[in-house]
Amino acid sequence: MNLPVRTPSSDQTMELYATGFNAWNQLTFDPSPADEEPDDLFTFTKVSAANAISGDGKVLAAQDSDCSPSNHATVQYPSLAAWKANKSTDSWPCKAAVRQITAYDAGFIILLEDETVLSCGDPRFRDCLGREVDESCPANEPGVIQDLSDLGEPIKKIAAAGYTAAALTESGGLYLWGMATPGSQSRHNAFQDISELPNYFEVDGDKDVQDIGFGESHAIALTTDGCIYMIGSNTNGQIGLGENAQDPVSSWTKIDFTPPEGWAIVAVEAGPRSSFIVTKKNQL
């Protein structure tokens, strides 16, 4: 399966800003002297400018996009090496092409081109599935999250990490589901009132959300008025509030981030302990 790559035209240059865990210089891309340990980034810092954006299929991948409309499927591989060798273990047909796949600690969330959202994962953590589980629709096979289908509006993006998942509607509504981190793990839970079925969550007094990203214990949101909001842990600087802000943030908090003149924020994303802001140069 080839990686999907989009190359924007020369007048659509984008820049990437990041904050958070940087133990291996994964955010700065600059070599440090061998005797120096790189520092975490505690505020959003420009780390890259690129003219190509790529996305990978992870371990649960969509079938090649050139397949016939009647043959859409998601394909599961036991490891990254198996994915590279094209040795799959399971394949499930889908009624529409796959738009997006995202992974959390115990499974996957899948968004189809017809805005249907599916989930599959470890049956021990069924609260992360956002749907009922029974013999006809087991946890380990992709099943429709019916509550999202019943909203009456299209889903444009999904996000997931840790034991939390989210769906974002075209109109800017944010719906979350999941569970607290199980067992003895000390990971902070960014959302305290989360449940096993999708529920609407407000951002700063019911603002419309344009984009969302989830980490292990934090989240980042871009609202339609161009503001950035963060919630959750800042242990590694992942919510960009500075090195002295070590206590978790329990509600959406607006951060002071303004792109350079002539640039606009177009997207956000999150890694396990990092956050990213994508800016785009305005067209003249």
Descriptive overview:
Helix content is 3%, strand content 39%. A hairpin with a 4-residue loop joins strand 9 (107-112) and strand 10 (117-121). It is built from 2 helices and 21 strands. The strands form 6 sheets. Strands 3-2-21-20 form a 4-stranded antiparallel beta sheet, with no helix packed on it. The protein has a 4-stranded antiparallel beta sheet with strand order 8-9-10-11. Strands 12-13-14-15 form a 4-stranded antiparallel beta sheet, with no helix packed on it. It has helices at residues 80-84, 146-149, and strands at residues 5-6, 14-20, 41-50, 53-54, 60-62, 73-76, 90-93, 98-104, 107-112, 117-121, 143-144, 155-161, 164-169, 174-178, 199-200, 209-214, 218-223, 228-232, 249-254, 263-271, 274-281. It is mainly beta and 284 residues long.
